[in-house]
C-alpha cells in the first residue's frame, strides 16, 4: 500500500519540476529590476595594474584604499593576514599604517586588545586601488574640489 503512494507522489513531483523547467526556459530574457534597458557591456581585462603610492580620500571617513594586491591573502573566520602587518602591535616595525582605534571597539564601545569581530573582514570596507574602468557612469566629485 505504501509503495503505490510513494510512486504517485514521486511522479507528481517529477512532473512539477519538469514543468517548472519548461516554463523557466520559455519565459524570455532577463529584465532589469528597474524596467530600464541595460547599457552595453564593457570589455574588462582580467587583471588591472595596481596604482603605486597612496590615493587621496574623496570624503571624510572614507576607508583608505589598499595600495597593494591582496589576491593571495587569507581572510576567514580564523585568519586575517592583513593583521600580520597592520595590527597595532606590529605595524611600527613593519612600516605599515596602524588600524584606526575604532577597529578595536566592540558594539558597546568597550576597548579590546584585538580587532573586533565586526571589523575582522577588512575587504568589507577597504578595496585595492587599481587602474580599472568605471563599471557604471559616475560624476562624483571630491568634497575638497566641489566647494
UniProtKB/TrEMBL annotation:
Transmembrane regions listed in the UniProt entry: none
InterPro entries given in the database record: Multihaem_cyt_sf, NapB
Domain of life: Bacteria
Any Pfam family matching the protein: NapB
Name of the molecule in the record: Periplasmic nitrate reductase, electron transfer subunit
Function description: Electron transfer subunit of the periplasmic nitrate reductase complex NapAB. Receives electrons from the membrane-anchored tetraheme c-type NapC protein and transfers these to NapA subunit, thus allowing electron flow between membrane and periplasm. Essential for periplasmic nitrate reduction with nitrate as the terminal electron acceptor.
Alphabetical UniProt keywords: Electron transport, Heme, Iron, Metal-binding, Periplasm, Signal, Transport
Subunit record text: Component of the periplasmic nitrate reductase NapAB complex composed of NapA and NapB.
Family: Belongs to the NapB family.
Localization per Swiss-Prot or TrEMBL: Periplasm
Primary location class: periplasm
Amino acid at each position: 500500500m505504501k509503495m503505490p503512494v510513494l510512486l504517485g507522489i514521486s511522479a507528481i513531483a517529477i512532473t512539477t519540476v519538469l514543468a517548472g523547467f519548461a516554463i523557466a526556459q520559455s519565459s524570455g530574457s532577463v529584465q532589469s529590476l528597474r524596467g530600464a534597458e541595460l547599457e552595453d557591456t564593457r570589455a574588462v581585462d582580467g587583471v588591472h595594474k595596481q596604482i603605486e603610492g597612496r590615493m587621496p580620500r574623496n570624503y571624510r571617513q572614507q576607508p583608505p584604499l589598499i595600495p597593494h594586491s591582496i589576491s593571495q591573502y587569507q581572510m576567514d573566520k580564523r585568519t586575517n593576514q592583513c593583521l600580520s602587518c597592520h595590527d597595532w602591535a606590529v605595524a611600527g616595525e613593519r612600516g605599515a599604517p596602524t588600524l584606526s582605534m575604532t577597529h578595536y571597539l566592540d558594539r558597546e564601545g568597550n576597548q579590546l586588545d584585538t580587532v573586533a569581530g565586526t571589523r575582522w573582514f577588512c575587504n568589507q570596507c577597504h578595496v585595492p586601488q587599481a587602474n580599472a574602468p568605471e563599471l557604471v557612469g559616475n560624476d562624483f566629485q571630491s568634497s575638497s574640489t566641489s566647494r
